[in-house]
Design goal:
This protein is of the alpha+beta class and 182 residues long. It has 6 helices and 10 strands. Helix 5 packs antiparallel against helix 6. The protein is elongated and about 60 Å long.
Length: 182
């Protein structure tokens, strides 16, 4: 199912962790040839959640080639590993060819997390098999299905994720109801 959606975070008072241009980042990732599915908070919003999110989460296969594509794509935004005390540059770490499982990056335009699999659901191939389509800025991207997103949120088990899963379940139930007859 394709959902038209256009959104970018543009505010005079930006917090350093807020995603400033969601559409531009998605476009650059796609133009670089990165195969990905949008997951996490933006996916929840795309499915109708009132959740507020500040970062972009995607699932992608993190081969050495894809890590290099990410480096080239994100270079202008000075990506740094946000979970390391030294805030190491992603442009230099990890070294070329070193295996990577997940990336948690802070950039000049916001936080992006690139995950190789989603807890409770699976890897990119599994996500793609059930993914919905989402239109952003005139382009179509894959977004985790509502059912898979609920599974992922419940598998994470954090309070905020469980609250999101509850809201997403209500959205799913409402979608299953037949339209009212007039």
């Amino acid at each position: 199912m394709t959902r038209p959606w256009s959104w970018s975070w543009n505010s005079r008072k930006r917090e350093s962790h807020a995603m400033q241009n969601f559409g531009q980042l998605l476009q650059r990732l796609a133009d670089a040839g990165l195969d990905f599915v949008i997951v996490g908070g933006y996916a929840a919003v795309a499915h109708g959640s009132s959740l507020v999110t500040r970062d972009l989460d995607i699932c992608a296969v993190l081969t050495p080639d894809n890590v290099e594509k990410l480096r080239q794509t994100l270079a202008a935004w000075h990506p740094k590993h946000r979970l390391t005390p030294q805030r190491l540059s992603f442009l230099d770490h990890p070294g070329t060819g070193q295996p990577v499982q997940n990336l948690y990056l802070q950039t000049d335009i916001g936080v992006i997390d690139i995950l190789s699999s989603i807890l409770g659901v699976g890897d990119l191939a599994r996500l793609k098999s059930q993914a919905d389509e989402l239109q952003v800025g005139g382009r179509t991207y894959r977004v985790i299905s509502l059912e898979d997103l609920i599974q992922a949120k419940e598998a994470l088990g954090r309070e905020t994720d469980l609250l999101a899963a509850k809201e997403l379940r209500a959205i799913a139930a409402k979608r299953r109801q037949p339209p009212p007859v007039h």
